[in-house]
């Protein structure tokens, strides 16, 4: 684990302790995986990555942990209209680019489009809370694979 990740892990553990959440070895492992993974994993991804280490763990346990983290504001849940929510450790504002071939989600930083929110508010009379923008395409690995097949 890099120093930065280690620091984020310690911060998260502090926050959990302050909220009275018990740090079980499984919970610790899920946290660690979330911080290290840059793919915005699904609960299933996390389960598959950790089941070897924790044979007693179930997908439901992973979900429960993720729910606790989400309620404390440690992770953001990205829903896609199906059962496969993805979990984002980085709760600061950023945008996502999604690979249409493998489903990978990568962060990219662009100044927040606040003017879109204020315009939407003016035009519709809604109280705008946030917005979500996603860019789609084919990632470098998938592009590379395609070339190899051809
Ligand atoms: Zn891809
Ligand atoms: Zn993200």
From TrEMBL:
One of its GO terms (biological process) is negative regulation of DNA-templated transcription. SUPFAM superfamilies: Winged helix' DNA-binding domain (SSF46785). One of its GO terms (molecular function) is transcription cis-regulatory region binding. InterPro entries: FUR, Fur_C, WH-like_DNA-bd_sf, WH_DNA-bd_sf. It comes from the Bacteria. The keyword Metal-binding applies. Signal peptide: none annotated. Binds 1 zinc ion per subunit. Binds 1 Mn(2+) or Fe(2+) ion per subunit. The keyword Manganese applies. Its main location: cytoplasm. Keywords: Cytoplasm, DNA-binding, Iron, Manganese, Metal-binding, Repressor, Transcription, Transcription regulation, Zinc. One of its GO terms (cellular component) is cytoplasm. Zn(2+) binds at residues 99, 102, 139, 142. It is found in: Cytoplasm. Its cofactor is Zn(2+); Mn(2+); Fe(2+). Fe cation binds at residue 131. Belongs to the Fur family. PANTHER family: PEROXIDE-RESPONSIVE REPRESSOR PERR, ZINC UPTAKE REGULATION PROTEIN. This is Fur family peroxide stress response transcriptional regulator. It comes from Gracilibacillus halotolerans.
């Amino acid at each position: 684990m890099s120093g930065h990740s280690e620091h984020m892990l310690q911060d998260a553990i502090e926050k959990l302790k302050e909220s009275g959440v018990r740090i079980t070895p499984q919970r610790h492992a899920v946290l660690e995986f979330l911080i290290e993974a840059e793919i915005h994993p699904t609960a299933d991804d996390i389960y598959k990555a950790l089941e070897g280490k924790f044979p007693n763990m179930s997908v439901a346990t992973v979900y429960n942990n993720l729910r606790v983290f989400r309620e404390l504001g440690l992770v953001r849940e990205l829903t896609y209209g199906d059962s496969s929510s993805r979990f984002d450790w980085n709760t600061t504002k950023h945008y996502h680019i999604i690979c249409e071939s493998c489903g990978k989600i990568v962060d990219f930083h662009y100044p927040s489009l606040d003017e879109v929110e204020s315009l939407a508010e003016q035009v519709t009379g809604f109280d705008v809370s946030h917005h979500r923008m996603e860019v789609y395409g084919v990632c470098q690995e998938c592009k590379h694979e395609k070339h190899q097949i051809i």
